[in-house]
Give the backbone structure.
Amino acid sequence: IWRGPMVTSAIKTFTQKVNWKDLDFIIVDMPPGTGDTQLTFAQEVKVDGAVIVSTPQDIALADARKGMNMFEKVDIPVFGLIENMSYFNCPHCGERTEIFSHGGARRESEKLGMDFLGEIPLDTSIRETSDNGNPIVISEPSSIYSKSYFDIGKKIWAKIDHSKS
């Protein structure tokens, strides 16, 4: 468990002392919340924007709102909201099941006046390909699941101010 100075030191090393060569951008996947990691990034790194990812349940969306509020307070634009584990299609019978509810992130984004970036389903192939180091967008680029990621990526790309690079 890292707190305070340890988090700050790791983030500074990651962002200031690693030779990343020529990059257009770096995407950092952080756990939900408003703790030391998120605050240190907001204070120490030039951040173009944040994307909030949440499952559809009310309790998860409450955490997402906290993150959105924190980014607003530190003047980092929130590009939008993504609903993760939005639904599950049974590989055997094809039936769609909304295990964690459905549409909560879309409703939340509408309520807050922000963009809804898309839905990512709960699917074994997404997990398996990621665990094997060959994400679905590489291993199965024409799948419907890859399309979800590509569509979301295009929306985020459109929000980045490319004149800063």
In short: The first strand starts at residue 50 and ends at 54. The radius of gyration is 17 Å. Residues 58-73 form the longest helix (16 residues).
